[in-house]
Amino acid sequence: IISLTCASDGAVVVDKSACSRIDFGCSQERKSGVAVTLEATSSTLAPSAPMKRGQTYSVACSSVHAGFEGDINVACGEFSSMSADSSACIELPCGEGNSDRVLLG
Questions:
Q1: What pLDDT digit, counting tens, does each position of 59-71 carry?
Q2: CA nearest to 54, candidates 28, 82, 33
Q3: Are 82 and 76 in contact (CB under 8 A)?
Q4: Of the four listed, 25, 26, 48, 88, which is most buried by Cβ atoms within 10 Å?
């Protein structure tokens, strides 16, 4: 509810203190998602169930790139925005899931 009143000087005073923000949260239906890149491999992470603003979940780094271990923390922010923190992803030593190009010559 927005309240409008006339001040003694004739100015209109707006009181919106009773207003509250609608939290739409994050969901696949709202096309919420966040791109994560590990080395040259990218993937878009999206919630499998609706999330409220401030909620988080974790996904394995290996779901984006098989050569990494650890977890990616995904969060639902304001206005259905999502963020991802992949700083805990650790590259595995050379082995299964890892590849690299070497130029010999």
A1: 999 999 999 999 9
A2: 82
A3: yes
A4: 26
pTM above 0.85, yes or no: no
How many CB atoms within 10 Å of residue 25? Answer: 16
The one-letter amino acid code at 12 reads V
Q: Is 42 exposed, middle or buried (0-12, 13-18, 19+ CB in 10 A)?
A: exposed
Query: Which residues are CB-contacts of 48 (< 8 A; sequence separation ≥ 6)?
Result: 28
Q: Are 18 and 1 in contact (CB under 8 A)?
A: yes
Confidence band for 78, pLDDT divided at 50, 70 and 90: confident
Residue keyed to tokens 């010999």: 104
Return the pLDDT at 96.
Answer: 58
